[in-house]
Design brief:
alpha/beta, Rossmann fold, six-stranded mixed β-sheet, five-stranded parallel β-sheet, disordered N terminus
Length: 383
């Protein structure tokens, strides 16, 4: 009986080990997003998506380990390193914050781990070989706004933006630019994300008599310039970035946010896209998945970026697994290479992705639409 008992124990132990063919191997995806702090309005929808994603890709089991960066660069870097060193992840995803993402990019290079960023960054594959972007880069989105300005005769543009990397990125995209000939930037006012009043910035901007004002904000704090300008009687068009297209923006801005114009990805407006748009069925599928899990009232355009990160892995991972096993440096390298060479015309919820060794964003004009606040709701202006 003792021999049988020992044999049974040995067989049980063997059954817990990966098979020679790797059938029990598991791909690990490490995710760093802001579920607390000022960036939580963006990060929580991302976390929500990773909780409902399929637990396999190409027949391989996948686990998602999600950590909160608390909207803080130091915390984000610490968590990225923890995922790599302790959780032995095969790919890193995050963050929704540009400053945190930039810091994580350095971690990815040092550790040779592919990183899929969830914040808008312009990524040259030669300069950033380990990083791939899901959100639309700033120039692609801001140019949609500039084209609207050109159509509406805007020649003098005021600017109020965050006093951080996001606000600076928007401003640099506006100046210089080649869409609106002779466009004059009349102001360059900045504010902190946790400010509660922008009276001074609004008054200085209005004094320059701009035809329109561009706000370089995101999330709920992106509504503050709209409030300040409206309260002081400004009647021109006030534009914002794709980072502000959310229910929280309207909740904070209220009537002062009415008529705001912004670019965004197609995801949240899938039902308003034309039937011939190839993004519509994909966006509709994943939007329905999100609604079923969290309710239509929880809809967020940012959720689509997390779905697209999954779709990029779905396109790249099977090929990488042909030459390497999960949990190895070889898979990290193979996955990096596959993201660069096997993501071709991948239709996502936010656009159609084609990565190249030079372009690690892979998106074009099909990844953007213009929306406007009408009667307290964001509505599609036109495709």
């Amino acid at each position: 009986m003792k021999i049988i008992s020992k044999l049974a124990g040995a067989l049980a132990a063997v059954s817990l080990l990966p098979s020679a063919g790797g059938a029990l191997a598991q791909v690990s995806v490490g995710v760093v997003v802001s579920t607390t702090g000022p960036g939580a309005v963006l990060g929580i929808p991302y976390r929500n998506v990773f909780e409902i994603l399929p637990k396999e890709i190409g027949g391989e089991a996948v686990r998602y380990v999600v950590l909160d960066d608390a909207s803080d660069v130091t915390t984000g870097v610490r968590n990225a390193k923890k995922l790599i060193d302790e959780n032995k992840i095969d790919v890193l995803v995050g963050s929704n914050s540009v400053p945190v993402s930039r810091a994580m990019m350095q971690v990815a290079v040092e550790s040779k781990v592919p990183l899929i960023v969830l914040s808008p960054m312009l990524l040259d594959g030669v300069e950033h070989p380990w990083t791939f972007g899901v959100p639309q880069p700033m120039p692609l989105m801001v140019n949609a706004v500039l084209e609207h300005m050109k159509q509406n005769g805007v020649q003098k543009l005021g600017y109020i933006g965050f006093a951080d990397a996001w606000g600076e990125a928007v401003y640099k995209t506006l100046n210089p630019q080649d869409v609106v000939p002779g466009l004059e930037l009349t102001s360059n006012e900045r504010y902190q994300r946790n400010d509660v009043s922008l009276t001074t910035q609004a008054l200085k901007t209005i004094a320059t008599q701009p035809d329109a004002v561009m706000v370089g904000g995101s999330g709920a704090p992106g509504a503050l310039p709209h409030i300040a300008l409206s309260e002081r009687g400004y009647k021109g068009t006030v534009y914002n970035t794709h980072g502000s297209v959310s229910g929280d923006f309207i909740r904070i801005g209220g009537a002062h946010a009415e008529a705001a114009v912004a670019p965004t990805g197609p995801f949240l407006f899938a039902d308003q896209l034309s039937d011939g748009n190839p993004i519509k069925p994909v966006a509709t599928k994943y939007l329905t998945m999100y609604d079923d899990a969290y309710g239509a009232s929880a809809r967020s355009p940012f959720a689509g970026y997390a779905f697209d990160a999954y779709l990029l892995l779905q396109a790249a991972l099977p090929e990488a697994l042909k030459t390497a096993s999960p949990g190895t440096p070889e898979l990290r390298q193979a996955l990096r290479d596959s993201l660069e060479t096997n993501v071709k015309n991948v239709v996502g919820t936010q656009g159609i992705y084609t990565m190249t060794p030079q372009d690690h964003n892979g998106l074009d004009h099909r990844a953007r639409v213009l929306v406007q606040v009408k009667n307290g709701k964001w509505e599609l202006m036109k495709e």
